[in-house]
What we know:
alpha/beta
Amino acid sequence: MSETGVRASILVVEDEILVSGLIADILTDSGLRVAGPFRSNLESLRFLDQDRPDAAVLDFNIADGNSGPIAERLQELGVPFIVASAFPREIASGPVASALRWISKPFSEAALTEGVCACLFSVSFKS
């Protein structure tokens, strides 16, 4: 939580219900606000038309393809993101390949938290 009491907002894009719940629980337990979880590009891009999260956690392969369109929009907005995926980083191209970190599934709570903190830390240096 920040000095002003405002919690950072983390966009979560994950189409597997159990995994999205786990990610949301870890982030909430860390004092962060969760936007989503969203299952698709369509849902996520609609959200990004209305709101700007502080960081994001994306799965590479989601309900309607890969998360490249979301990664592209996040880059346009200047929002750092990590990818948590069972797919190797080497298969990614375009904006999604520029993720601050690529965390392999299954991931540990520490790996996810460290990745999100790295995103938030990178934002603090840009401000």
